[in-house]
Each structure stands twice: as C-alpha cells, then as structure tokens.
UniProtKB/TrEMBL annotation:
It comes from Polynucleobacter wuianus. InterPro entries: Ig-like_fold, Ig_E-set, SoxZ, SoxZ_dom. Residues 7-99 form the Sulphur oxidation protein SoxZ domain. This is Thiosulfate oxidation carrier complex protein SoxZ.
Length: 102
C-alpha cells in the first residue's frame, strides 16, 4: 500500500472541483536497473472516486502514466459530500482514502 493520497475538494455554484495526488512509483517495465535487468512493470491500474456512495469518476491507467499521478476533475455535488478515492495496482496493492468537500 502506498502513502496517503492528498485530496482537495471544493464546491462552487453546485460544482465540486477535485484534485488528487497519488504517491506511487509507477514503473513502466521498460527501465533497467544498475545491472542491466528490466525493472518489472508496476503501476496503478484502476482508480475510482465515489461521492456519497455513488461513483463520480473511474479510470483505467496504463504503464505510460508518470510517477505520483495527479488527477483533477469536476462533478455536480455539494459541500459536505464524503469522497472515497480508491486505487488498485498491478501487484494487487490497494489504497483508499477519504475527504470531505469544503
């Protein structure tokens, strides 16, 4: 499991702006280590964001996403909404963090 995500969510005129910074090394499987061996691919493969239990964002990532991915999206919501952000990586590791819309 990675480090906690940094989640910021603010509502303005019925639209919630969500910003998420995920900590993950995101190896593509194309780099080599010091001895010349390929470093195995290891990256976040799925991301899901739920607000008040309803999915408002979903994504499938591939090996081309950079280290420590940053997401920014908007949805129709309100202050006080409980957000749950979850991801799963290619090794089966999982992370889930929560935030409240301000």
């Amino acid at each position: 499991m990675g480090d906690p995500m940094r989640i910021r969510a603010a509502e303005s005129n019925g639209t919630v702006d969500v910003k998420i910074l995920m900590k993950h090394d995101m190896e593509s499987g194309q780099r080599k280590d010091a001895s010349g061996k390929l470093i195995p691919a290891w990256f976040i493969s799925t991301v899901s964001v739920k607000a008040q239990g309803k999915e408002v964002f979903a994504a499938n990532f591939g090996s081309a996403i950079s280290k420590d991915p940053f997401l920014n999206f908007k949805y129709k919501g309100s202050k006080g909404d409980k957000l749950v952000v979850s991801w799963v990586d290619t090794k089966g590791d999982k992370r889930s963090d929560e935030a409240t819309v301000s």
